[in-house]
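Session log. Operator J.P. requested a structure for one protein chain; no other inputs attached. Running the standard single-chain path with token output.
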Amino acid sequence: MTRTFQAAACLGAVVIISALTVSAQAVSIQADLLKDWTDLKSTMAKIADAMPEDKFTYKSTPAQRNYGEQILHIAQVNVGLLRSLGGKATPPPIDMKATKKADILKAMADSFDYGTALIKEQTDQTMLLAAPMAPPFLGPSTRARIVYSLIGHTWDIYGQMAVYLRLNGGVPPASQRP
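Structure written below.
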């Protein structure tokens, strides 16, 4: 009987500790979005910087955007769709004619910083509300959906940039082996 009681007590302690651990790790939509957004900024900065400046005009085919234009496209779409969230943060200007690597990288970084500021303005509750100016192609959407749509779009462009980089003898930073 004592062993049964000890086993039950141990099991009870494990359940209580597990419950306390889970409650201490509360989930948050806003925090998840912020983490995914800032991680993506870092990933995109690395791949954007991996291409030498003299290859920023490289296109895989004549009909495609060049490498620098891909990065500017990310910045432009980020700012455009992030505006649909509403918010107090001021959107950065994006010079779509920029050709210098430093200017292009700054435009992308600024667009991600704008997103960070807007996400920080939100709460879990406001992230679940309809975006006040959702783009017609998405239809009515929560603020969270707008941010995750941007993340998906940026990963699509990352894939294109990885091909451009490999066609020029580079290896995307995320694929490099230590």
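Operator note: Confidence is low (pLDDT under 50) at residues 4-23.
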